[in-house]
Design brief:
With 308 residues, the chain is of the alpha/beta class. It has a single domain, classed as Rossmann fold, CATH 3.40.50.1820. Helix content is 38%, strand content 19%. The chain contains eleven helices and eight strands. It has an eight-stranded mixed sheet with strand order 1-2-4-3-5-6-7-8, with helices on both faces. Helix 4 packs across helix 6. The longest helix has 16 residues. The protein is globular.
């Protein structure tokens, strides 16, 4: 079931004997998660520019050499269960995605729960998008070639931002890239049963993430919490979804993709057998991670009219 690279990485993590995220002090867990950027491989060199949007939301721009000005732009929302992760934890992911898509990548540093529970994170992410669009000339952004991307909880945020953009004049999203996205607070799927423990991300950890995000009541109804119905509309942007076979989130991601397809949306589903959740983050150890980002780059490139 697990491929050899995933097995080796899980064994290494087990030998390091790091407690589960819910069992660590929050600040320490965040530091450890950011250090996992080391699993992403050798850092790519490219121009990087920090920009402050306001007192609370930072962005980081990644521009590969040879990029047109204004540039196709991918706005990236990091994973980490909303609770963990930051600009540094996904630095290499953004660098590789920028190179493979030959686009500018702008990463968003949204406020995290439990200090800032729902709906702060999706509001921050959309506020960042609006600011990026309003500063398109300053940031070398081509508004006609604007994409959203994210992994895990960041994928969930990318979907919520796309829904907000559909209701906003002047912001058109050309496509979404979703790596093993979180979709809804429901832990009863077949993949949750099969991969509940022993495959990296556990059911217990996902339950904890959702409670940090929403509080104790997980029955809250809102299209940003379970976006399947809201996103199942023919005008939802073209979407590429990348799924890890050995992941508690596999089935909900697949169901979301099929719902988009049933509604008439343009959807590309990429299944990666034998790999675990987070495999693009672990691309330095799991080769499928690099392949997934390469495919994501091709998807972005295919939707840019002057290149397609």
């Amino acid at each position: 079931m697990l491929d050899q690279e995933s097995q080796a990485l899980l064994k290494e993590m087990e030998e390091r004997d790091i407690p589960a995220w819910p069992d660590l002090p929050l600040n320490f867990a965040r530091k450890v998660f950011t250090l996992m950027n080391d699993y992403s491989g050798e850092r790519l060199e490219m121009q990087t520019v920090d920009a402050v949007l306001d007192d609370e939301i930072r962005i980081r721009r990644y521009l590969p050499e040879g990029l047109d000005n204004p540039a196709p732009t991918v706005v990236y929302f990091h994973g980490g269960g909303w609770v963990l992760g930051d600009l540094d934890s996904h630095d290499q992911v953004c660098r590789v995605l920028a190179r493979e898509s030959m686009s500018q990548v702008i990463a968003v540093d949204y406020r995290r729960p439990p200090e800032n529970r729902f709906p702060i994170a999706p509001q921050d992410c959309f506020a960042a998008l609006r600011s990026i669009v309003s500063r398109a000339e300053e940031l070398s952004v081509c508004p006609e070639n604007l994409f959203l991307a994210g992994d895990s909880a960041g994928g969930h945020l990318a979907i919520s931002v796309a829904l907000q953009a559909l209701e906003t004049d002047g912001i058109d999203i050309r496509g979404l890239v979703l790596f093993y996205p979180v979709i809804r607070p429901d832990f009863s799927s077949s993949s949750y049963e099969r991969f509940a423990e022993g495959f990296g991300l556990t059911r217990k950890t996902m339950e904890w993430f959702w409670k940090q995000y929403l509080g104790e009541d997980l029955s809250v109804t809102h299209p940003w919490i379970n976006p399947t119905k809201a996103a199942s509309r023919p005008d939802f942007p073209a979407t590429a979804i990348f799924l890890a076979e050995c992941d508690v989130l596999h089935d909900e991601g697949e169901e979301f993709a099929l719902a988009l397809r049933k509604a008439g949306g343009e959807v590309a589903i990429h299944e990666f057998p034998g790999v675990i959740h987070g495999f693009i983050h672990f691309m330095g150890r799991i080769s499928s991670g690099k392949l997934a980002i390469e495919e994501a780059g091709r998807f972005v490139d295919s939707l840019i009219p002057r290149r397609g």
